[in-house]
Amino acid sequence: MGKTSLNDLVYSFEPLKIVTPDPDHKVDEAELRKSIQKSKEMMAVVEEYKRKRAVPN
Fold it and tell me: Maximum Cα–Cα distance for the chain, whole Å?
């Protein structure tokens, strides 16, 4: 397929590969919990920033 560019970024529209997940894969629950907590904290910072910007001066 062809390539195109947008804002100096070049995109190649190739088909995505379908990957079947390994049924025996085990998730590290502790790392998953830490990642979820970090994401929640980051979203709280973003929401606080948006709230502060919305207040008229």
Answer: 56
Amino acid symbol at 2: G
Query: Is 16:1 a contact under the CB 8 Å cutoff?
Result: no
Q: Name the phi and psi angles at 5, rounded to 5.
A: -130, 150
List average pLDDT for each run of 10 residues in the chain, which is 57 residues long.
64 83 91 96 95 79
Tell me the pTM.
0.53
The C-alpha angle with vertex 36 and arms to 35 and 39, in degrees rounded to 5, equals: 85
Distance of alpha carbon 46 from alpha carbon 38, whole angstroms: 12
